[in-house]
C-alpha cells in the first residue's frame, strides 16, 4: 500500500511539473526596439540626409511592424512619412533590407504593393541587436531609394555600438 501511495505521489509530482512546463510555454518573451533608440535612429537618419542635401522622413518600427518613432524633416513632403513606414514594414515582413527583397522577388512585387502597409521599394533597413531582429528603419524623400538607404545606413553605423549592446541594458 505504501508503494502505491508513493507511485501516486510520483505521478502527481510529474504531472504538476509537466503542467508548469506547459504554462511556461504560454509566456512569450520579446526583444524589440525601445522608443529612445528608435527616436535617435530616426533623427540621425534625417541628419545624415540633410548633410547630403535631402529632406526626408524616417520611420522606425519594432519587430512586429508597430511604429516606434516617426520624424519628418521640415521641408519633406507629408507623403514621405507613409512611404517610409511602408518600407520599414516591408523590411520587417521579409526580414531583409527592402532593396535586397525588391531585387530578389520582383515576381511578387506588384501583389505585395497592394497589401495595406507594405511597399516594395528600396530604403528600408533591418535593425539587429545581439543577433536579434529588433526592428527596421524606413526612409523616403531622397532622389532614389539607394540614397534613402544610404542615409539610414549612416545612422545605423553611427549608433552601431549602442544598438549592439541595447539588449544588455
Short description:
By secondary structure, the chain is of the alpha+beta class. Helix content is 51%, strand content 16%.
How does the SSE layout of this entry go?
Elements: H1 2-25, H2 35-51, E1 57-62, E2 67-72, H3 79-94, H4 98-104, H5 109-112, E3 124-129, E4 132-140, H6 145-158, H7 160-164
Antiparallel strand pairs: 1-2, 1-4, 3-4
Helix pairs in contact: 2-6
Notes on the protein architecture:
- The protein is α+β, with helices and mostly antiparallel strands.
- The protein has a single domain, classed as Haem-degrading domain (Beta-Lactamase, 2-Layer Sandwich), CATH 3.30.450.150.
- The chain is built from seven helices and four strands.
- The protein has a four-stranded antiparallel beta sheet.
- The chain is globular, with a radius of gyration of 22 Å.
CATH structural fold name: Beta-Lactamase
Provide the structure class: alpha+beta
Tell me the helix content.
40-55%
Low-confidence stretches: none
Number of helices: 7
The major beta sheet can be summarized as:
4 strands, antiparallel
Number of domains: 1
Tell me the span between the first and last alpha carbons: 55 Å
Overall outline: globular
Spatially, the strands of the biggest sheet line up as: 2-1-4-3
Overall pLDDT, averaged? 89
Gyration radius over CA:
22 Å
Total strand segments: 4
In terms of DSSP E residues, the strand content is 15-25%
Question: What is the string of SSEs from the N terminus onward?
Answer: HHEEHHHEEHH
Just give the CATH class.
Answer: Alpha Beta
Which CATH architecture would you pick? 2-Layer Sandwich
Amino acid at each position: 500500500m505504501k508503494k502505491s501511495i508513493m507511485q501516486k505521489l510520483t505521478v502527481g509530482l510529474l504531472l504538476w511539473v509537466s503542467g508548469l512546463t506547459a504554462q511556461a510555454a504560454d509566456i512569450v518573451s520579446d526583444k524589440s526596439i525601445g522608443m529612445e533608440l528608435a527616436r535617435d535612429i530616426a533623427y540621425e537618419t534625417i541628419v545624415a540626409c540633410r548633410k547630403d542635401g535631402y529632406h526626408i522622413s524616417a520611420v522606425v518600427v519594432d519587430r512586429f511592424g508597430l511604429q516606434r518613432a516617426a520624424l519628418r524633416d521640415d521641408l519633406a513632403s507629408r507623403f514621405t512619412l507613409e512611404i517610409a513606414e511602408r518600407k520599414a514594414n516591408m523590411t520587417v515582413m521579409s526580414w531583409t533590407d527592402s532593396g535586397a527583397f525588391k531585387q530578389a522577388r520582383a515576381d511578387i512585387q506588384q501583389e505585395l504593393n497592394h497589401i495595406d502597409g507594405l511597399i516594395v521599394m528600396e530604403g528600408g533597413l533591418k535593425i539587429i541587436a545581439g543577433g536579434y531582429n529588433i526592428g527596421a528603419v524606413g526612409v523616403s524623400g531622397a532622389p532614389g531609394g539607394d540614397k534613402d538607404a544610404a542615409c539610414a545606413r549612416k545612422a545605423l553605423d553611427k549608433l552601431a555600438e549602442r544598438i549592439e549592446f541595447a539588449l544588455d541594458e
